[in-house]
From TrEMBL, chain A:
Its cofactor is [2Fe-2S] cluster. GO terms for biological process: P450-containing electron transport chain. This is Ferredoxin. It holds the Pfam family Fer2. Keywords: 2Fe-2S, Iron, Iron-sulfur, Metal-binding. CDD domains: fer2. The keyword Flavoprotein does not apply. PROSITE patterns: 2FE2S_FER_2 (PS51085), ADX (PS00814).
TrEMBL record, chain B:
This is Cytochrome P450. InterPro entries: Cyt_P450 (IPR001128), Cyt_P450_B (IPR002397), Cyt_P450_CS (IPR017972), Cyt_P450_sf (IPR036396). Keywords: Heme, Iron, Metal-binding, Monooxygenase, Oxidoreductase. Belongs to the cytochrome P450 family. The keyword Heme applies.
Length: 107, 391
């Protein structure tokens, strides 16, 4: 199991235990974490799972995947260099304890 | 395992008139059911419909023999999978993202909505369905697509003819003759506007597709616009009519929605309660199982999102319109790679602009006889009239 902490726009923190290999989006949706919608189920088609990777974790999470940039451009809230589509971040032991911050709205 | 049970009693007429009591029974008794009249295996539980939509390799959208082909004079992205679908969809997406809709299109939508709402006569009984829901949906879409030169009437007529042709599973000649005529008119207009949209990029879907670095073929650009016309008017039109009905028949909820400005929640509940697109088909590519039954390769399953949206496993009192649900994980926009490309536009225009504007301008709006409202549709569903008194 891998721990992930989601920090909502209002500062509320939710920590969930996710399966190895799960995505940050899916772990949020299956644990009822508000602020991640992930409507397309991880097909990079909806830009509703936007998150900001915590600075301390940026290197370990790594770069955006192919095609992610284009879709991310369309996210509802401001996109910065920490922005990712959380469906594209796969969880493993190396990301145990990951912290991501959520935008104010997803659509 | 065994094949799913076969039903020979449910008729398309029953589904068209009111499918909900049937779906309720199927969820309880036969969530996987081969329905002879539809020639499809119905899936009525949310977990099953989601499983199918999330597995596009096993449950393909590709249908080489769809009547959509002659209706649209093209094999469209709705009926493609994988890279091919992705490439055509991505060509259009820059015009449809949440950011684009908020920052660039927002003011235009406000202006169009204000124009159409303000011309409604005060103090009279008006059929909102024909006077507002349809024409405004058509106008907004014409702008999004980059064909505002088309009239509301043309947009609505083309849309209906494409839908009728796409659903012409009996392969009768008349619906295709009608869709052919619509295709001729659309092709002519798109051809006339092409140079202008290329020379003066305006962020519309047509302009974005024409000016892409690596554009998709012209035939697919046309097909994409047609798919958006066929699939982009009914849904916001029916969603708007459904939500207005839901709010007017539940005045306590309307009061609370006003107080909290919870129009977005009202939107989500409306499309959950009566999903404008009720069902979708997927072709099974390998022998598999669903819900404890064998599903053979070559079978066509039908995900009934209308039923998934009322599934007792996810929704308390799902048959009722109730805006203030704790959670509302509906599947009205589908999921997976074919997730509705117009979802954000619908949320923005219907949920954030039109609903508050309409109830603000006519705070005493009434639906004198809810029983006079007629609901229709199996594939697409909504009220086909909405006689309200505007005050």
């Amino acid at each position: 199991m891998v721990k992930v902490t989601y920090v909502a726009h209002d500062g509320t923190q939710t920590t969930v235990e996710a399966e190895d290999g799960d995505s940050v989006m899916h772990a949020a949706v299956s644990n009822d974490v508000d602020g991640i919608v992930g409507e397309c189920g991880g097909s990079m088609m909806c830009a509703t799972c936007h998150c900001y990777v915590d600075e301390a974790w940026q290197d370990r999470v790594g770069p955006r995947s192919d095609g992610e940039e284009d879709m991310l451009e369309g996210a509802a809230c401001e996109v910065n260099d920490r922005s990712r589509l959380s469906c594209q971040i796969k969880l493993g032991a190396d990301l145990d304890g990951l912290v991501v911050h959520l935008p104010e709205e997803q659509f | 395992m065994a094949l799913a049970p076969l039903d020979e009693e449910i008729t398309l007429e029953q589904l068209n008139a009111d499918p909900y009591p049937i779906y309720r029974r199927l969820r309880a008794q036969s969530p996987v059911l081969r329905v002879a009249s539809a020639g499809r295996t119905f899936l009525t539980k949310a977990a099953l419909t989601k499983e199918v939509k999330d597995n596009p390799e096993l449950f393909s959208s590709d249908d080489p023999n769809t009547p959509m082909k002659p209706a649209f004079r093209a094999h469209t992205l709705m009926r493609k999978d994988g890279e091919e679908h992705l490439r055509e969809r991505k060509a259009m997406m820059p015009a449809l993202t949440p950011k684009k809709i908020q920052s660039d299109w927002g003011p235009l939508y406000e202006k169009l909505a204000a124009e159409y709402v303000s011309r409604l006569p005060r103090g009279e009984t008006v059929d909102l369905f024909t006077e507002l829901c349809g024409p405004l949906a058509a106008r907004i879409l014409a702008h999004v697509l980059g064909i505002p030169e088309a009239s509301d009437e043309e947009m609505q007529r083309w849309s209906q003819r494409l839908i009728d042709g796409a659903g012409n599973f009996g392969w009768k000649p008349e619906p295709f003759a009608a869709s052919d005529e619509a295709n001729d008119e659309m092709d002519l207009l798109f051809g006339q506007l092409c140079d202008k949209r290329r020379a003066e990029p305006d962020g519309s879907a047509y302009s974005v597709m024409l000016n892409a670095d690596d554009p998709i073929p012209m035939s697919q650009i046309y097909a994409n616009i047609k798919i958006a016309i066929g699939g982009g008017i009914n849904e916001p039109r029916d969603a708007l009519a459904t939500i207005v009905y839901g709010l007017l028949t539940n005045p306590d909820q309307l009061a609370e929605v006003r107080a909290q400005q919870a129009w977005g929640k009202a939107f989500e509940e409306g499309v959950r309660w009566v999903a404008p697109i009720q069902a979708s088909s997927r072709l099974v590519t390998e022998d598999t199982q669903l819900g404890g039954f064998d599903i053979p390769k070559g079978d066509t399953v039908m995900t009934i999102q209308a039923s998934a949206n009322r599934d007792e496993d996810l929704f308390e009192n799902g048959e009722e319109f109730f805006v203030f649900r704790d959670k509302n994980p509906h599947q009205a926009f589908g999921n997976g790679p074919h997730h509705c490309a117009g979802a954000h536009i619908a949320r923005r225009t219907v949920g954030k602009i039109i609903l508050p504007m309409l109830f603000d301008r006519f705070p005493q709006m009434r639906l004198p006889d809810p029983g006079a409202v007629i609901w229709r549709g199996f594939g697409f569903r909504g009220p086909i009239n909405l006689p309200v008194v505007l005050n």
